[in-house]
Amino acid sequence: MADINGRRVLELVKKAGNSVCADCNCQATEYASYNIGVFLCTQCAGIHRALGTHISKIKHLRLDKWEESQVKHLEEVGNIIAKRKYEERVPVCYRRPSENDPQILREQWIRAKYQREEFIHAEKQRYTRGTMEGFLFKRSKVDDSCKQRRFVLSERENTLKYFVSNKKEPKAEIRILDMNVAFAPEKLKPPTSLQITYINQGSTRHIYVYHDDAEVIVEWYMAIRSAKLNLLQVAHPTQPEMELAQSLTQDFLKEGFLCKTGPKPSDGFKRRWFTLDGRKLMYHDQKLDPYPKGEIFIGHASDGYSIHLGQPAGWKVKDVGFIFHVKTPSRSFVFSAERSDDRNEWIAALQMVISRPMSPQDSFLRGILVKKRGGGSVVSFFSTR
């Protein structure tokens, strides 16, 4: 009987919807939650186990023995029917994780679905109310210390503010529509950390925050997305909601250390931390710097932007690592990666940006992005070093 039940389970995986993970859409399902009635990938099954057996009971599809009642429940439910129940009221602003997304997103998505049942009971979705207030730990811009700060999000005012101690005036006031937020566990170390990026007086500013509670930090992330979506709907009333949702937040396309020269071959290479944020290629002395040293706008191929292996014609810089360069209308930027595979990844990411059509927001960014330097002088974001 056990062998018969095992074969029935494997046949169920072939049914529509069951061959991909019910939670992250991974193409390899190895487990099932037999009380919920869904098929899962290995990573999501691990999160289900952490929920406790009072919420989700997990078995391996091939290695475990299956009872008649367990198989019958899987036959009656399956991924498609379960999604109708547990994802009935997922707000458009909520970021549904894929298999390559940060672990914290996947974990909180699963907990929201089955533990808190947020998408069955919409009143539990606190992040869609247009306002949020609470304390987060913020990293200092001068050292590695983190101090607790009070943050206030207001969709009505289009602002995210943070306050020092009990002062009435905010230390900073950020326009929601000018802001990007991304998870930053590799940089700040706590997996419950965020990097908030926005334009401040013509240059990009980075703020790093975290909270000890994963649910809280994901709520802040989703609250920012919700407020931004509602503001974009007011600004662009004819644009479809799902299209607007695609521009709420974006992970950095690529980050890492590269060596970079100045505008002349004689300048030599200097090691910098690079971040490709949409069409902004930013470089910093260190990965947690509050401001980039320079920002390079990456436009469309039809406007004179291109990526090339090696050095520009006429250059004779001593080879250091694996060299490539980005050609812009104003000059060529020359970079060197430590490994060939890293160089290839950078080229692929930059090529994807160059091939993507320019949006009105991209044109606006190109027009306003400047770099402030000492003495108050303002120079183009096509920085020299």
How many helical elements? 10
First-last Cα distance: 71 Å
| Mean pLDDT across residues | 90
Structural class: alpha+beta
Q: Helices and strands, in N-to-C order?
A: HEEHEHHHEEEEEHEEHHEEEEEEEHHEE
Which spans of ≥5 residues are poorly predicted at pLDDT below 50? Answer: 370-385
User: What's the total count of β strands?
Assistant: 19
What percentage of the residues does DSSP assign to strands (E)? 25-35%
Q: Cα-atom Rg, whole angstroms?
A: 24 Å
Task: Summarize the biggest pleated sheet.
Answer: 7 strands, antiparallel
Question: How are the strands ordered across the major sheet?
Answer: 7-6-5-4-10-9-8
Shape: globular
Helix content: 25-40%
Characterization of the model:
This protein is α+β, with helices and mostly antiparallel strands and 385 residues long. Helix content is 28%, strand content 27%. The chain is built from 10 helices and 19 strands. The chain has helices at 2-13, 42-51, 68-76, 78-86, 103-115, 185-188, 214-235, 241-245, 340-355, 360-368, and strands at residues 31-33, 38-40, 58-60, 131-139, 146-154, 159-163, 172-175, 179-183, 193-200, 203-210, 254-260, 270-277, 280-284, 294-297, 306-309, 322-327, 332-337, 370-372, 378-380. Strands 7-6-5-4-10-9-8 form a 7-stranded antiparallel sheet. A 7-stranded antiparallel sheet has the order 14-13-12-11-17-16-15, covered by helices on one side. Strand 12 and strand 13 (280-284) form a beta hairpin. The longest helix is centred in the middle third of the chain and has 22 residues, at 214-235. The radius of gyration is 24 Å and the shape is globular. The termini are far apart. Mean pLDDT is 90; it is low at 370-385.
